[in-house]
Amino acid sequence: MNCEGYLINNFIPWEKLLEDLQYMPNEIKQHVHLILEILYASHKRERPHDEIFIENSLIKIETCIDRTWETLNSGYWKDVSIEYRYSYSLCSIVKVILLEISSKLKSNISKLEESALNLGIIQQIDKGILLGAPLPNSPQLLTDLASKINHLCDSTEFPGKDTMPLDCKKIFADEKSINDALLPGFLPIHRYNEPSMEFFYKNIFLLKVPALIEGSIKHWKALQLWQNMEYLTKIAGNRTVPVEIGSRYTEDDWSQRLLTLSEFLKTYVLNKNDETGYLAQHQLFEQIPELKNDFTIPDYCSFSDNEDVDEEPDINAWFGPANTISPLHFDPKNNLLCQVFGLKRVILYPPEDTEYLYPYDTRLLDNTAQVDPGNPDYEKWPAFKKAKGIICLLNPGEILFIPPKWWHHVTSLTPSFSISFWWT
User: Fold this and answer.
1) CB count, 10 Å around CB of 287?
2) Which ranges in 13-154 belong to alpha helices (H)?
């Protein structure tokens, strides 16, 4: 595949990028502005680029990216100034432009070199999406660039592609593991088969009670297509995603790592690994819109607790091997947890049991309990004996409605892919 000059010639909105420079911090802007002005002038007049200028500009823009990276990774993410996130996005775009020009200036570039370059372009765009912020004048630019280049670049060209199949049709938990998963002392969750909109609203949504729903997403193409790891690799194997490393986010061994989806599959899903890798609570479908074609937002999300709010739900992906765990926690929004493939065990407690669950007293974890309901320590947490939990196994094609403030603990019993829809 030859995508030399493709992005520059078809998708770079030069004037808008120059306007977006005003939102960057001055320490970065002065360097990026000069590079972008010269690149635009050469492009507009169809003049050849100076190879030395391109090489020096790549060094400068990489320095700007490193400086911005340091700021983004200092302190709490929510406290990072938005201008540095804009900076990371714009610097990523300029680097992509420089990389494409650099490849055009080279003669006799090999297929392997071209593949490595294309992969580097996609990875830089994804970092811009994950760490940057949508630019005010071209908010969809990074996402569109990634889709265009990924569509043209066959994933088989890139190193690291794993062709080992994961036959999800054969993924199941044996009878013993299912029996072990269904812990004693819990009540079952009420189960409904394709409840009508009226029934869901009156008997589930308004009452704010958990419910298992069968049949309502049976039309999703994802239920079949995503069982094929080669399909997911073809669509998204080259894309960089944030992977949680460690047993659970409350433990000291927890960290995050940026990997391509192919690397994630090979390292943590297709093969056994002593450490756990989990693609958790990630807005994968905003990053890779092509995957949105394989599912639809459930109609039940159309009901709202706030008539003044008319927003699309937050859609998150949860993809990983067996034994991934989301510790006992609650969310402030309504949640439809939809199972694409695999089997999960979910334990829930009502908001009124909060005092028995020993929430952490830190600001970052005050929605998370210290108790592990799968292996409780009653000597350490004696009041937990008073909590009244309910339990279910979430099978492929099923939806679990989790009302706001309901505590839930989720364990993957097999390799698993879930989609959650959060809304108010």
Assistant:
1) 22
2) 14-20, 26-44, 51-72, 82-105, 111-131, 141-152
Alpha-carbon gap, residue 91 to 41, rounded angstroms: 18
The helix or strand, by DSSP H or E, that contains position 350, with its residue range, turns out to be: none
Amino acid present at 204 = I
Closest CA to 312 of 297, 334, 330: 297
Determine the Cα–Cα distance for residues 92 and 20; give it in Å rounded to an integer: 13
- Residue 318 pairs in a beta bridge with 418
- Provide the b/e sequence for 146-160 (b: ≥16 CB within 10 Å): bbbbbeebebebbee
Cα 388 → chain centroid:
33
d(CA 85, CA 72): 7
Tokens of 107: 């003669």
Paired sense of beta strands 416-423 and 187-188, if any: unpaired
Distance set, CA 271 to CA 30, 60, 91, 276, 320 (Å): 47, 40, 36, 11, 11
More confident residue, 165 or 189: 189
Query: How many Cβ atoms from other residues are within 10 Å of residue 288's Cβ?
Result: 21
HSE of 364, CA atoms in CB hemisphere, 13 A: 6
Give yes or no for a contact between 132 and 23, defined as CB atoms under 8 angstroms apart.
Answer: no
pLDDT digits (tens, 9 = 90+) for 108-139: 777 778 778 888 899 999 999 999 999 999 99
* Stretch (H or E) spanning 336: strand 334-341
The encoded tokens of residue 332 equal: 């402030």
What token pair was written down for 313? 């739900």
pLDDT value at residue 76: 78
pTM of the complete model: 0.89
**152: pLDDT confidence band, cut at 50, 70 and 90?**
low
Q: Give the residue carrying structure tokens 């004037």.
A: 15
Q: Which two tokens stand for residue 409?
A: 């603990």
Closest CA to 423 of 298, 297, 301, 282: 301
Contacts of 223 by beta carbon, 8 Å cutoff, 6+ apart: 217, 340, 341, 396, 397
Q: Walk me through the domains of the chain, giving residue ranges and CATH numbers.
A: 6-157 (no CATH), 170-423 (2.60.120.650)
Residue 156 has pLDDT above 70, yes or no: no
